[in-house]
């Protein structure tokens, strides 16, 4: 683990490299994997948010640090192995054969946040990061106080028959060659939000390319296994907030400019809503009219709606934890009996 240094986002953001255990991506790599932890400056608050990005992505939403700081939360973000800041040499972008591999860097990031004085940790996952965060919370409930999901990837965005076929087909390909490219993402979504193509955001087109990373069989196989776990139900013990756009564009056709400005053109929001009853004991769903796939990169109005929903819900739940802890402390004080 390296020391904190200024991040590519500039001050006050800082980054440090996290050493992780090598995994098997299915092909030889010249450099061992690492992860990268980013924080919004030195800690100021008692609670922290840890952000986990999606596929073909990295942490780029600098405005989140200010939004969470205003709500009394310190922001951390992790670039997972082979993504963004963490990719080294000839590593295959985003390649992993088991989503549980990421438990190591997420656990390490939470350990850093706790060591820096944070008593509560909110795990916030977007898209594939939402799926990864959901599974992490299920397997490590003692490490996560609250779970927030931004458009989590809970199913393949295609017709029912093709969704059913995708599992066995990808499993067969994976058994022969986990690194085989089985798909590529379309470029419309990323192009629509990048300043080079008329969008409002500036970010690295190497780390978040318009054509997306190559989608490999081993990665899809890992995702489908994780999605099946979600479909079976998880019974998460911590409170969960799921935020999605209020609509998706139709699968199988190219999104219109209107779709790109105000809907989820990557995933089907109904697939996310379907999983709400089985996620846990305390799940809140918030839909954001006009939101896009990454709600934090939506136009100003829906972006504000999303951030207000997250910070308000988070603040209320953290306050409830404090009130409960105070009540238990009072009832246990023998001087008050």
UniProtKB/TrEMBL annotation:
Gene Ontology molecular function: any one: hydrolase activity
Stretches of the chain forming a coiled coil according to its record: none
Keyword Hydrolase listed: yes
Signal sequence annotation: none
InterPro entries noted in UniProt: AB_hydrolase_fold (IPR029058), AB_hydrolase_sf (IPR050266), Hydrolase_4 (IPR022742)
Keywords, comma-separated and alphabetical: Hydrolase
Keyword Hydrolase: yes
Gene Ontology CC terms: membrane
Pfam family, one: Hydrolase_4
Location of the Serine aminopeptidase S33 domain: 44-160
Protein name listed in UniProt: Alpha-beta hydrolase superfamily lysophospholipase
Organism for this UniProt entry: Serinibacter salmoneus
Organism lineage string: Bacteria, Bacillati, Actinomycetota, Actinomycetes, Micrococcales
């Amino acid at each position: 683990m390296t020391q904190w240094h200024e991040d590519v986002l500039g001050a006050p953001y800082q980054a440090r490299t996290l050493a992780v255990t090598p995994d098997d991506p299915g092909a030889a790599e010249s450099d061992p994997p690492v992860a990268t932890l980013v924080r919004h400056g030195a800690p100021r608050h008692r609670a922290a948010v840890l952000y986990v990005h999606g596929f073909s992505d990295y942490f780029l939403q600098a405005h989140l640090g200010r939004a969470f700081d205003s709500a009394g939360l310190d922001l951390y973000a992790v670039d997972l192995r082979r993504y963004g800041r963490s990719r080294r040499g000839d590593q295959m972008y985003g390649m992993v054969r088991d989503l549980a591999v990421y438990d190591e860097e997420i656990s390490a990031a939470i350990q850093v946040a706790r060591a820096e004085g944070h008593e509560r940790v909110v795990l916030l996952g977007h898209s594939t990061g939402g799926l990864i965060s959901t599974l992490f919370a299920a397997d490590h409930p003692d490490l996560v106080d609250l779970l927030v999901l931004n458009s989590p990837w809970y199913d393949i965005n295609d017709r029912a028959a093709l969704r059913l076929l995708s599992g066995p087909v990808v499993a067969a390909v994976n058994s022969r060659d986990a690194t085989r490219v089985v798909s590529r993402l379309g470029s419309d979504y990323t192009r629509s939000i990048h300043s080079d193509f008329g969008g409002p955001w500036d970010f690295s087109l190497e780390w978040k390319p318009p054509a997306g990373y190559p989608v490999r069989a081993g990665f899809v196989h890992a995702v489908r296994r994780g999605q099946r776990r979600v479909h079976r139900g998880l019974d998460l013990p911590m409170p969960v907030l799921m935020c999605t756009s209020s609509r998706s564009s139709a699968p199988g056709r190219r999104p219109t400019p209107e779709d790109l400005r105000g809907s989820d053109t990557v995933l089907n929001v109904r697939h996310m809503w379907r999983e709400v009853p089985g996620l846990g004991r305390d799940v809140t769903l918030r839909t954001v009219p006009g939101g896009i796939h990454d709600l934090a990169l939506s136009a100003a109005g829906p972006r504000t709606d999303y951030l207000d929903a997250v910070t308000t819900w988070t603040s209320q739940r953290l306050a409830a934890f404090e009130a409960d802890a105070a009540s238990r402390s009072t009832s246990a004080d023998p001087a008050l009996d």
